[in-house]
Amino acid sequence: MFAILYGVLALVGLCAGLVIAARARELCWRAPVDHELLDRALREARSDATSSALLARTLEPSWVAELLRVGAQARAEGQPADDAIDEALMDLRARTTHSLLTVNVLGRVAPPLAFMAAIVTMATALRHDAGLLSLQKGLAESIAVNQAVLAIATGTTISLVCRFAIDLLSRRGARLLGDLQRAVALLDELRAAT
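Request: output the structure for the sequence above.
Response:
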């Protein structure tokens, strides 16, 4: 029974690690914008759709490039770019917190699952139904204690890693949203100047 519960605990840890890695990749490598490149490109750009599209290609794969692309596409279709950019900004705001709830749930599930594994292991050992392990006095109990400590340590580690990742990715997302607001303000200044 311990193997099943510990396997589920390991699966929870693996899922949490994969979700954290995907979020970290998105927020730390894909989404950020190079501010020097953005400032230089905005100084050189005009406010028409072709320069916005060119600027978006220059800044890819950042989220600012997505905003520029949406604005350029809206202008090309004859729609107000501000509305399209605001909608895209709300979508990006939602993407900053995407999957953090999943990481939170996985982090909260791990410790109780670990304690269940520890209780089941200790209960099995204390029933004195250990088979061949009962030939050596205390061996079954010693193995059960080791497995219980391993399960609790694993569950606690998964929980702590999830909490740390949530904190780190939340702060990174807030910083990205500030960068996006700054980029939108710079684009508005550029549009107003021309």
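The first helix runs from residue 2 to 30.
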